[in-house]
């Protein structure tokens, strides 16, 4: 069993309140959960308007499958124009 964790720092430039930030994040997190076989959550910077840290976790019997799910999830995050992914760390357990 392989567990892959991708933690990515992101900037939401147009958010001028926590409500706007959460609306953007909710839409992104829901799309990720619907489209891929992963778990995802905001794990840091919950009280900051324009910053967030998103954790994406994939569990699989083979590393290649988990890595593909994580890479696809990161590509989807990058496809949203309102959010910019900056620092991404990937860990394997």
UniProtKB/TrEMBL annotation:
Name this polypeptide is given: YlxP-like protein
Taxonomy of the source species: Bacteria, Bacillati, Bacillota, Bacilli, Bacillales
SUPFAM superfamilies given in the database record: Hypothetical protein TT1725
Domain of life (superkingdom): Bacteria
